[in-house]
Design a protein that fits this description.
By secondary structure, the protein is of the alpha+beta class. Helix content is 20%, strand content 32%. A three-stranded antiparallel beta sheet has the order 2-1-3, with helices on one face. The N and C termini lie far apart (28 Å). It comes from Streptomyces lasiicapitis.
Length: 60
């Protein structure tokens, strides 16, 4: 059954040098999100990337 709702509970978050945090993207699986975070992290810049899961109510 498909109700047209896509669930993307995994977030990639970026923190810049000033401590500002930004959502880079939302993903269906943790593995997919981690792959993106790792590829961004491998660029060698001063940004920090990590993966977080949204809670059931949509909050981090």
């Amino acid at each position: 059954m498909n109700d047209g709702t896509v669930i993307l509970p995994w977030l990639v978050i970026r923190q810049d040098d000033n401590g500002n945090r930004y959502r880079v993207g939302r993903y269906a699986t943790k593995a997919e999100a981690q792959k993106i975070a790792d590829s961004l992290d491998d660029r060698g810049n001063e940004k920090l990337y990590w993966v977080e899961r949204l809670s059931q109510n949509g909050a981090r």
